[in-house]
Each structure stands twice: as C-alpha cells, then as structure tokens.
Amino acid sequence: MGAINSPLRILHVEDDVADAELTRDLLESSGIACSLTRVETESSLLRALRQEEFDLVLADYSLPSFDGGTALRLVREQRPNLPFIFVSGTMGEEVAIDALKLGATDYVLKTRMSRLVPAVHRALREARERSELERAESELRERESKIRRLVDANIVGILISNLDGRIIEANDAFLQIIGYTRGDLAEGGLHWPELTPPEWQAASKRAADELAATGVCELFEKQYVRRDGTRVPVLVAAAAIEGEKGENVAFVLDLTERKRAEEAARRSERELRDVIETIPAIVWIARPDGSNEFANQRWAEYTGISITLALDSGWHSAIHPEDLGRYRASWHASISAAAPFEEEVRFRGADGEYRWFVIRGVPLRDESGMIRRWYGIMTDIEDRKRARQLEADLAHVNRISMLGELVASLAHELKQPISAAITNAGACLRWLVRDQPAVKEACEAASAMVDDGKRANAIIDRLWSLYKNSPPERELVDVNDVIREMLLLLREEAIGYSISMSARLAGCLPRVAADRVQLQQVLMNLILNGLEAMKDSGGELSVTSQMEKSGQLLVSVTDAGVGLPAGKADQIFSAFYTTKLQGSGMGLAISRSIVESHGGRLWATANSGPGATFHFNLPTAAEKLKLSAAGA
Questions:
Q1: What is the pTM of this model?
Q2: Which of 4, 130, 421, 431 is 20 to 30 A from 76 (CA-CA)?
Q3: What gap in Å lies between CA 445 and CA 441, rounded to an integer?
Q4: Contact 42, 65 (CB under 8 A)
Q5: H or E element in which residue 632 lies
Q6: How far, in Å, CA of 549 to CA of 465, rounded?
Q7: What pLDDT shows up at residue 425?
C-alpha cells in the first residue's frame, strides 16, 4: 500500500484530545501526512463542514453532547460523498452494521487501531473510484443529452437501421425528407434499400460494404424515393453502433435546396456567358499579375487569332507597334497601383486593317482587399475617332468660310492703319529734309507709324488665329476681352449693314479655362448670324456677359432680326440645317459642340419683340477645379 504524499485533510469528531493525538501519530507513522481538525459538538461539526474542504471524516460513536449517528447524518446531508469511518471503543457488532447501512464507509474499534490505516486507504480508494464513476456517468449523460438534442433538433435526418436495412428509429427530419409518417415507421415497413432508386443501388451497396468492413461509411451522395414517388437528393454518412450488433446510425442531409442553388448558379453562369458572348464588344479577364485568362468569341471574330493564343502572346501581337509600348507602360502602371486601367490603342483585324479601340479594366478585390482578377472590355471607337476628326475638319472649314464674309471688312480695317502709316512716314520725311530738321516732330511721326504697324499686325494675328488649324489649347481666358476683339473685328461688317453693335459686360468676371481661338469662333458665328438676320432691317446687336446664380459665366448675343424659325428653335443646332441660301448648316452645330466640350451649354430663345437671343454659359476655372475635386 503506497504512502499518501499530499497532506490528508481530516475532520475528527472526537471529545478526547489524547485519542485524537494518538490517531494522528498512528496515521503519520504509517506514511499518511494529515491535517486534522477536531470538533466535539454538533454546531462545530456543521461550521467546519460549511467552511472547509475535507478528504475524510473520523468519528467516535459516543460523544458527551451528541452521538455518532447524528454526526453521520449531518455529514451525509452536507457532503454525501465524503468518506466516513467510525473509530470507537463502544460500538457493538450490530450497531456497526446499522451504521454501515446508514452510509458509513467503515468502522474501527479503538482496541484494534491497527485496522485504521488499511481502512483509510480503502475508504479513500473507494471515494476516488466512486468519484470517477460518477464523473463518467455524468459525461455519459451529457453525451447522451447532446445526442438527444441533436436528434430532436432535426438539423439533419438521423436513422438507425439493422443488418437487413430495416429502419428501426428515425427523427422527424428524416421522415420529412422521405415523406413518411411516424406511424409508417412504427409498422416496421421502412427499409432504406427499398427507398433507393435502381441507379443508386450500386453506390449504396459500396457504402454498406465499407460500413461493414471499417465500421464507418464516408459521405456519399445518393437519392431516396419519397412516398409520393418523387426523388430527393441526399448526402449520407453512417457508422456502426458499438455494442449493438448489426445496428448502424446514419446521418442524412437533404440536398434539394443546394441542388436548386447549383442549378440556378449554372443557369446564371450560362446566361452570363451568353451575354458576354453576344455583347458588341471584346470582353476579357486577367489574373492578378496581368496575364490574360479569358477573352470572348468577339476577339477571335475580329482579330482572327484564336482565344488560346490570345491568352498567351497573341494579345500583344495584334496591337499596333506604335501603340504597344504605351499600352504596356500604362497596363503595368495600373497593375502596380491596383488602379482602374484605360487606354486607346489600335488593334489589327483579321483583314489586316487596324482600328482604334478603347480598353478599360477594373480590379475585383476579395474581402482583404487583394486583387482576385481584372475584368475589362474593349470597345471599337474607330468611327468615333473619324467623327471627331471630321468635326475638327468641318470646324476649320467653317472658320475659313467665314473669312470670305470678312474680306471686305478686313480690307477696309487694314487700310486705315496702313494709310495712316504712309501719311506719318511722309510727314516724317518732310520734317527731316528741312534745312533745320524738326527732329522732335519727326520722332512723333515715326512713333505714330509704329503704333499704326502694331494695329495692323494685331488685325492680321486675329485673322491668322481663326485661319490656322492648330489643336485646341486650354488657357485662362478673359471672356470680355474675346467679346471686345470680335466686336472690333466685325465692326466694318456691321457698318456695311447699317447695324450698330454694343456690349454690356459685367466687370470683374472670373476667367474660364478655354481655347481662345474656339471661343472666338463661337462668338464670330453668333455675331455673324445676328448681322445676317438684320442685314435687311438694320438695328442694334448687343452682347452681354454676366455671372449666373449657378456660378457659371453667361454670354448672350441679342439681335433684332427675323427671329427663330417657328417650331424649330432647337433644330437650328443640327448639322447641315440652315435658313440661309448660301449657308453650310454647320456653324451653330460646331459652336454647340465647342461650348459643350468646354463643359457649357448653347441655346436660343425668341425675343418678346423682333429677333432672337443666343446664350451660352461656361464654368469658370474655379468652378471646374471644385467639380474636379468633388469627382475625385
């Protein structure tokens, strides 16, 4: 019998101090270290039991204030599993047997104290075994409770069957899956092999063989035939029940909803692929590193290069050599910055001709922000490119055509500074050829010649800016300055028609970010249209500038001419629509295009009296900056 290493906590119900000391010495001499608490009254016993933990109770049977039977009862009430040994000199055999029946672990007579140590060891061993048994029983009850909760929760179908496949027990979830009732189950007529369709018998047989050989059947898919004859797809796993010969428990999961979801996903995927294959653009997918993963059939139809090659080197081989370097640099920059991609490049078609495409791509990220794929589209913009070029060419032609209308006016305006320069040059010579040259007067005449030359040069510059076909250049422009320039340039044209021109320009207007030449073209178109409308009646043409409440700059050109065509106020801005015999029908269309490209709007309204007013507004440079910041 091994020694007890940790101190044994003993509650000793004993009125004799000497007997208590003797008991301690006996235990410790036998290798049982102990911590002994002695009590001799009922109240002190109860107090000790409530305040401390003990491993063992030793009690005398006969005490002055109460007896051992009472002590045993109190201990069992407070600590039912605490070992209790009577150590007494007055217990008879019958009393001892009654004490054991009442729950005492053992008894030792004081005349035979040699039995105490074995009795303590046995009591502690039995207490430990009893505690372990109770813990095991508790764990078993908990497991059974968990299993019962699982079965009753009906999260999955659960059934128990025997060797011939008869279903012995099942929960409501399984019965709902197969469409049978608990009464059908009670009659004993449910066998899982009979519920299995013929085409699934082989899979069920393999699962049954696996279960018989290993005691476990891994998850497998099959179908059951429901009571109404319909099929239900299920996922099944099974295990043999230990101790129950030939009985198995199976877990059944109804796959109906999952199958529907899978079919819906497949249908959605088919529909999406149909959309991808039929949209009039090339759709592509790339991996996170930028390598191609997918291209729709439009790619092969346009380039003549197979989709397989497109996923390798064929993609770059179709790009125009002049655009390839720019495309690669832009694509790698987007990948590095994980930012959306957009670039215009030329792709070679199956016929060998190149067309312009705009390529756009956006990254798809996962929950952590990492890029999973790039999705993009290639759109043919060849016709749009050509339309833009045609529009630019027409705008240039429109400017040139307007010059013909200005020839007479410009000739008259250029004659003035040239004639003045000639007169001043003659005066300068006369001052210089005198016997006493009048140097001061000659210098004044020469200075006047310089001014006349500058004025003629400014007129020529204005004419040249309208004539040349240079690309648009945006700069900060004072719109009032442009209005004054156009009124000065067209002054002689107005005088020829007996038309007066005036300007009411608001002061301190903010500048606009615009192409100066294009604004000149718009104003010249509107003013010339106004002069044309008034050439038979004369009158006054006015140009005004002001700020709108919206923060945009508004310019209006008002004439007193024939007015707008009835019911066609907006049609006049359509290309090739004209009310003039010699008109091209492009002036107003181009003017509207120019204004809209600057972020503004051009429209016309009828006056309350004769004539019409043409308005256009433009965002100021500050307003554009604010809108750009808001968009970012």
A1: 0.36
A2: 4
A3: 6
A4: yes
A5: none
A6: 33
A7: 80
